[in-house]
Amino acid sequence: MKGNPEERAVALGQYVVETGATVRSAAQQFGISKSTVHKDLTQRLKRQNRALYNGVRRVLQQNKEERHLRGGAATRQKYHPEAKRTLSHVK
What we know:
Layout: H1 5-19, H2 23-30, H3 34-48, H4 50-79
Helix pairs in contact: 1-3, 1-4, 2-3, 3-4
């Protein structure tokens, strides 16, 4: 979804709030760069829809607090694929 940046920012914000998606997964879903997602969510959305921005900010903060757990789980899966540990305990 390229096109109008303001519309894209609102669509990204709704997606992140509904799914709890990370910046990286939202970028992949929308086919845009992580930098564009971050700019849309932190700058454009703040001007467009303050309530949605506040919801997105909470999700991004939670993702930031959990990133060390995600990295640990990814490393475990890489070196010990038989240990099928997931991030279900994180959410």
